[in-house]
Design a protein that fits this description.
By secondary structure, the protein is an alpha/beta fold. Helix content is 19%, strand content 35%. Strand 2 and strand 3 form a beta hairpin. The protein binds flavin-adenine dinucleotide and FE2/S2 (inorganic) cluster. Flavin-adenine dinucleotide (FAD) binds next to strand 5, strand 7, helix 1 and helix 2.
Length: 258
């Protein structure tokens, strides 16, 4: 798991103008909500959630935001990347009624958990939010599974006009469900405050270096390592993470407020 494996890209899917999925063969057992460290030669090594798990094929889905993701974005089939992992705890699908709420690329992290819950015949709803219709992705992938797919866009170009938290307020009435979320941390914090009596799991992102719990770069709250104790935290843990929704640390350890 900790040794770097060099993998050839076997398939690439352009999800929209800004987001791509890269597929590769991967034999290890992977849980939804876990992540890999992806080494992009001569650029960087970055954390990426697993967005697709099927037998010995896995994938990552990413947005072109900087040096490493831009290089990845321009890779072709047959190009090679280095992979360590999978790391982290993953989601616990411990309720039969689950509402998945995703914002932007956070949706990639939720996808394998959604497919698992569907296979288990759980009662699921999916609420996903984007800035506008050009940013939409995975809507067809989820739409094939269930009818309870709700979409919001900030500009109203498709689906509900407004943000995903307002849409969630309109849809979620049943306290007996588990909410699982991934997206911008301010969005997840708002959901946590709105649904504070619910079972709740959120996947957090922090700057990572070792990804195996040694360097302390990704610590939140009282020394919880996002790479090891996370990236998924439940309501009990989130209540004690004072930085949740407030700030994160950059590569030098300096605080950056959201
Ligand atoms: C557990 C986890 C899972 C993630 N899963 C996904 C995913 O599925 N899809 C996706 O598009 N993005 C995901 N990210 C975010 C992704 O790792 C960063 O966007 C990426 O590292 C940016 O690298 P860059 O060189 O392209 O951009 P840069 O210009 O280096 O940075 C752009 C932004 O990414 C942040 N970042 C850079 N390097 C790291 C790092 N080593 N660790 C964490 N954040 C970093 C920077 O602070 C900055 O905010 C995940 C992050 C974590 C921690
Ligand atoms: S990245 Fe080193 S402890 Fe988490």
């Amino acid at each position: 798991m900790n040794s770097l494996k060099i993998k050839e890209i076997i398939k690439i899917k352009k999800e929209n103008q800004y987001v791509k999925t890269i597929f590769f063969k991967y034999d290890e057992n992977i849980k939804p909500g876990q992540f890999f460290m992806i080494w992009i030669p001569n650029v960087d090594e970055i954390p990426m959630s697993v967005s697709y798990i099927k037998r010995n094929i896995a994938a990552i889905t990413f947005r072109d935001v900087g040096d490493a993701t831009n290089k990845l974005f321009n890779f072709k089939i047959g190009d090679k990347i280095g992979i360590r992992g999978p790391y982290g705890n993953g989601f616990k699908l411990n309720r039969e009624k689950i509402i998945f709420i995703g914002g932007g690329t956070g949706i990639a992290t939720l996808a394998p958990a959604i497919e698992n819950a569907y296979k288990k015949k759980f009662n699921i709803k999916i609420i996903i939010g984007f800035k506008n219709k050009n940013e939409l992705f995975f809507d067809k992938r989820f739409g094939k599974l269930i009818n309870n797919l709700y979409i919001s866009t900030n500009d109203g170009s498709i689906g509900y006009h407004g943000n995903v938290t307002d849409l969630a307020k309109e849809i979620i009435k049943d306290e007996d469900c588990l909410i699982i979320t991934c997206g911008p941390e301010i969005m997840m914090k708002k959901l946590f405050e709105l649904f504070n009596t619910y079972q709740f799991q959120a996947s957090l992102e922090r700057y990572m270096k070792c990804a195996v719990g040694i360097c302390g770069q990704c610590c939140v709250g009282h020394g919880l390592r996002v790479c090891l104790e996370g990236p998924v935290f439940d309501a009990t843990m989130l209540k004690n993470i004072k930085d949740f929704g407030k700030y994160k640390r950059n590569e030098s350890g300096n605080i950056k407020y959201f």
